[in-house]
């Protein structure tokens, strides 16, 4: 697939040009089990660190944030992204909305993607995110139950056993409405579209999986505090519409959170271990 590293221009003062990669082009469509990662960031011959970004479109939406700092940090990113495909070692764990005819392709893709990342000695860090609030366990005949995160913990253990640092970015709160339509109907500019936080589950399979790991094994980032205040979850934050629909955040809002992601990823930089 196309390499996007040359599309990101960093000026001497550190400002980032407004020419961001077309990250929406780098995602397997439903039913496609092929592993063909896209790459962006620092040029291969200058990269100090290699990162794999793994997940579904909810991992892909963080590419805009990564793009703000990977070039100056000397990081090259390989994106392994497949539509509606949960990252777990449990074949029963799936996005409940994934059509039955596409489930086996997802299972094949995530096994092959994890194996490719484990086998690639260049990859220091694996960043995982997905649409975790909507992943459940399929118990046959379309009977669904809560995913306790054990399959997530197993895939995390495999990456750690391969010597990879693992960063988990938990899912963002999902909404009961599509933000663009809500804003179009709003009669006020004062926090016009909020959602009841009590409707949101307390945790996700990603969060549960991290909790099953030994303390300190996984670097974990949860942005729920950015969106929610204990009563409602907000959708226009700092004057920026946070969502493009009901569960994907906009690129400008992802970039507004880049500093927290950069700090976590570059703490104890694995590249320093190679020098």
Can you describe this structure in just a few lines?
The chain is an alpha/beta fold. It is 27% helix and 19% strand.
What does this entry look like structurally?
The protein is α/β, with parallel strands linked by helices and 275 residues long. It has a single domain, classed as Rossmann fold (3-Layer(aba) Sandwich), CATH 3.40.50. The two termini are 30 Å apart. The protein is globular. The strands form four sheets. A six-stranded mixed sheet has the order 1-3-2-5-8-10, with helices on both faces. It has a three-stranded antiparallel sheet with strand order 4-6-7, with no helix packed on it. Helix 5 crosses helix 7. It is built from ten helices and 13 strands.
